[in-house]
Automatic annotation (TrEMBL):
Identification of the protein by name: Putative Glycerol-3-phosphate dehydrogenase
Lineage of producing organism: Bacteria, Pseudomonadati, Acidobacteriota, Terriglobia, Terriglobales
Pfam families, sorted: DAO, DAO_C
Segments forming domain FAD dependent oxidoreductase: 17-345
Protein family membership: Belongs to the FAD-dependent glycerol-3-phosphate dehydrogenase family.
Sections of the chain in a coiled coil: none
GO molecular function terms attached to this record: glycerol-3-phosphate dehydrogenase (quinone) activity
Enzyme class: oxidoreductase
EC numbers for this chain: 1.1.5.3
Domain Alpha-glycerophosphate oxidase C-terminal: 411-514
Amino acid sequence: MSIAVKPRPSLDGQHFHVVVIGGGINGVAVARECARAGKRTLLVEQTDFASGVTSRSTRIIHGGLRYLEHGELALVRESLRERERLLRERSHLVQPIHFLLMLNESTQRSAMKVRAGLWLYHRLGGKKPAETSEMELKRIERMLDAGHRWSLFNYEDAQCEFPERLVAEWLAEAVQAGAVVRNHCEALAVDVAHGRARGVLLRDRISGKDQRVEAGWIFNCTGPWADRVCQRSSVRTGKPMLGGVRGSHIVLPRFSGAPNVALYTEAADGRPIFVVPWNEQVMVGTTEVPDTGDPAKAAPSLEEIEYLLLSVKQLFPKARISAHDIRYAFAGVRPLPNSPDKEPSEVTRRAVLHDHAEEDAAKMISAIGGKLTTAASLARACARKIGIAVAEPRTVALRATPALDPLMDDEIAEIAQAGSVSQESARGMVEWHGRQAMEIARLALVSPELRAPICPHTPHIVAEVVEAYRKEFAVTMADALLRRVPVALGPCWSASCSREAALRMGAVLGWDEHTLGSNLEAFEMERTAFLRRPAFNIAALEAAAD
């Protein structure tokens, strides 16, 4: 069977109340908020939604424990409120995760200060953390470097394993509210005339055609590209708005003795790092390295990979982790506010709205900074900035970690029956697609090709990919497999998985041999540029880490 994907109509000459440039989590949140308020809204993204900083984060929805050290109580309160809303509203994507804060005798922080900080964090969060089981604590302690005296402290935060999926859901809600969205559509420049921003010159990277739209307001939500948008538009900010900081991660297999909880500890230089269970693997990060290069080309340096590898090896010497174990490494540039007199760890993570009115570009606002947790809060602030009356959402009662939903198994069984798929496939659909899982199951019932797994190692099925093309604005194979149905981030994925997925997708999407080959080639190029394999430096890495 063949499923057609609708072509995109031209935007040339259209007028929008609001144009949002940048389709990461902040830009999508802003577009959703403006569209819900009845504003005709356009969202454009030069590559794919959530393909920049959003997909290169540690994937933690946290209240900002470390911000307490810098006295940012208001940001911690905001983050905790937003964390709780996400836990309630997106429980299939955002889930509680238990942390152990681990410090040894060489820490730069006193135990009393840590206890006081955690007490305040728990008070602000309105709940006590669940205690790590005695068995898990002993298991972790057995694996730790016995040459140190360790102090372990409990706290709870949340994790969004796939913020790309959260963006996809918010994107769908923006469109339902009337927004027009375009990925693979570059904003070449903001049209500024007579002291105000009046429109945006766009280039559709799919058709290659240039288009111009008019705008009442323009939000520059491009993250680390924000200064470049201003430079191309001849908006002179005097000094850079951003002080880009690269954060790198390594991903390891679940090694023997790997913790079942997330760890927050200090590296040898005193910097905080996380060791987090993620996607059936272990993620270790992050670094803080000033980076003023092209954010699209951000890649972890050999020194950063050495640093992270050495940190986890020193933490778990008995696990015998080596550079050969690194599945991949990735990096993104945090778009922090320009603060040349501060260390990267001291720079606020609070978002800043830069109004360009004083730079003869009224009606243009750049959003600088922010984080996954507070994207919805930033969107409300942007809406208010342009005169939209947005009430703060009702404060929800903070809750304890929930038990598993007793109705979940019934729902999964119903979806499995509706789509004639396995319970494992049905569970995967519920976990990634929430309420849309039943619709995908009904689509899967149409043919065996749609019920087939995307690759032999995953329970996720081809119908999920088709839904990504039909309703979630996937344009390329990478859009589908790295972000809408992110199986290609999993532990199994290899070049043979890519080939098998391309064949199975092509069979239902109607790809001819040429289209299939070009899709596969582009996918492999994008995946390897994003998820770096440091194999070519294995010898050097081993020598440095030892």
